[in-house]
Amino acid sequence: MIVWRKLGILGLVIPVGLAMSLQLLFGSLPLLAAIGYLIGAIPVWLLGKKWNDAIDQQNQMNLDQGRIMKHSLFWIHLEYWAWIFGLVGFTILLDSTVLPMGIDSQLSIWGIGILLVIAYQIYKGRNRIASLISKEVEPQAEAAGKSSTIPLTFKPSKQEGNERERILRNYKTEDHRKYMPKPSEDNANSLGMP
Fold first, then answer.
1. Could you tell me if residue 149 is left (phi over 0), alpha (psi between -120 and 50 degrees) or otherwise beta?
2. Which residue among 17, 25, 115, 190 sits deepest, i.e. has the most Cβ atoms within 10 Å of its Cβ?
3. Tens digit of pLDDT for each residue in 80-102?
4. Would you list the domain boundaries of the chain?
């Protein structure tokens, strides 16, 4: 089962599709697969970086709304799949040309690479949260008596709170029948009533 969010499936489709296309067109050589993975990693990096940075900016601007989820495949952001497929292409290229290493060594290298990418993504995410928390109140603005950040919750002043209570009080005691249609004599006569 493949799990992806938004356009995260492109992290798999572009490099694998390019590698398979090169092999179908020019013959089944591991070198062509390696070139396909390496070339396919470039658009995955560019698209993932562009789209996920735009989502980051939207999330920073809309603090009061829910967070927009990023493009990801197997919970790894799209731009990081470029590094994974770049590593896959590089190891296949080494295996087919310079240093024959076998499939077991390649799988070990790929597994270590995926673990490093996941660790970096977790570190970057936690680091971003820590920086947002530390930047929430800047000391210069606090010393000047002004807050430079947008408040996360709305706290009405006493005057606004009193206005809200007055509206709710009037709403609860208001006679809502005045908004209903009134029966007229024409309607009563058409129904056969005297």
1. beta
2. 17
3. 889 989 998 989 888 888 888 88
4. 4-143, 158-190
